[in-house]
Amino acid sequence: MGYLPSTRARLRRAYIPRHTRSQWRGHRIRHALSLTLVFTLTFTGSALALSYSRFQSNINQRDISVYLGDERPTVRPSPVVESTTEPADPHEGEELNILVIGSDSREGANVAVDGSGTSEGMRSDTTMIVHVSADRSRVEIVSIPRDTLVDIPSCTLPDGSTTRPQSSAMFNSAFSTGGRTGDVGAAAACTILTVEELTGLYIDDFVVVDFAGFVNVIDALGGIAMYIPEDIDDRAADLEIEQGCRLLDGTTALGVARVRKSVGDGTDISRIGRQQDLVAAVIREALSTNLLRNPARLYRFLDSATSTLTTGHQIGDIPEIAGLARSLSSIRAEDVTFITMPFAWSGYRVVPATQYVDFVWDALLADQRLDSIYSGDAPEIALAVKEREAAADDDAAEAQPAPPPALPEDSETETGPAPEPPDPDDGRVDPTQCTKENAS
């Protein structure tokens, strides 16, 4: 039997006709976080027209509505908010859920990047739900392990045929199921339907990025700084790198994202953490540089970034990208939260952890801040929750401390030797302080 959502999760999933939803949302489609954080159009006159045309033609947009059907989670109507900024966010006041899918295609330009030759079929390597809060004050990113056992609903293919529903199937097989004819839009649609069945969330649209696209985006940023906690020598990922604060170009970053069996416990779960660290590094780099004030560099970045994307029918519209970017201009790196869907082990696979996973989905449904304690392996979550409760009890006890016993007048307190300060010349870099300035 496949994973069965909790009763509460089932009750919260109402279905309404698609034409009714469209009255609420209309064209509520946005762009992936990495672009919305940096895309404020700074060109003017003919340069703006040239840039608009080039960037828009770079983006491979797909209308997947025919694949999604009419039975999808309810979308709450959001308040209408008139924007006072230009360019305007046409959907200000509405929360957004965007599915970002990393494709491990070995075809086309990806052959040169991956080096492992072509292979048939379409597969997803990484999937993240990117939730943008209605007030644009925060972004939550939830990774779904590719090895999660889920129920995959019947999916529509480009020729009009449908696939059979599947129980206890690996999550990443939804992409290959919908994409068996080679259509990226149908592959994304089947993944969206699977995520909606799993979470109860309405997914506004999607972004698919492949190997070549990942490399191009990081190279366009001039590389990213990332702390590597241990030496890595992995032939499968074509990666050899020493421990420490390292400046990664696109190809090396791809190796870090793909490495699996030779690092940590060799599971997909341990790889998710590295992938989240890479995305966080991209965000920090985009936020910490003067990218928006350097038209030449901005143009090169956008030219590379937009050419790597396959998106929904309207998610790549340049005016909407610019408006959303403007409304997210106050976002800081600390306003972005990464977690992994709570899970429990089932042999070599995982299943959603029923005692914790609804805390995540309910928070996203209510557009409330995620509690990062509900991330990853269920036993580790239980331990973290227990430690938090114990710390809270200790804090409560310390709030009303008992007076210390009085010491005799002739007594003297004894103290041990002061700890030695760390050697400033030991060559180590604090992982939290790894930047381009101290990376090598």
Structure description:
This protein has helices spanning 7-11, 18-25, 33-36, 45-58, 65-68, 110-114, 173-178, 184-199, 211-220, 250-258, 268-288, 295-306, 318-327, 357-365, 378-398; strands spanning 60-62, 96-103, 124-132, 139-143, 149-152, 166-170, 205-209, 224-228, 232-234, 239-241, 244-248, 309-312, 336-340, 343-346, 349-352. By secondary structure, it is of the alpha+beta class. A seven-stranded mixed β-sheet has the order 1-12-7-2-3-4-13, sandwiched between helices. A two-stranded antiparallel sheet has the order 5-6. The protein is globular, with a radius of gyration of 24 Å.
- What's the alpha carbon Rg, rounded to whole Å? 24 Å
Which segments are poorly predicted (pLDDT under 50) over 5 or more consecutive residues? 1-48, 108-119, 411-415
Strand elements, count: 15
Structural class: alpha+beta
The strand line-up of the biggest sheet is 1-12-7-2-3-4-13
From the structure provided, what is the oligomeric state, counting identical versus distinct chains?
single chain
Task: Please tally the helical runs, counting DSSP H or I stretches of 4 or more residues.
Answer: 15
Give a quick account of the main beta sheet: strands, pairing sense, barrel closure.
7 strands, mixed
Can you give the helix content as a percent range?
25-40%
Q: SSE string, helix = H, strand = E?
A: HHHHEHEHEEEEHHEHEEEEHHHEHEEEHH
- The proportion of residues in beta strands is 15-25%
Distance between the termini: 50 Å
Overall 3D shape: globular
Mean pLDDT figure = 78
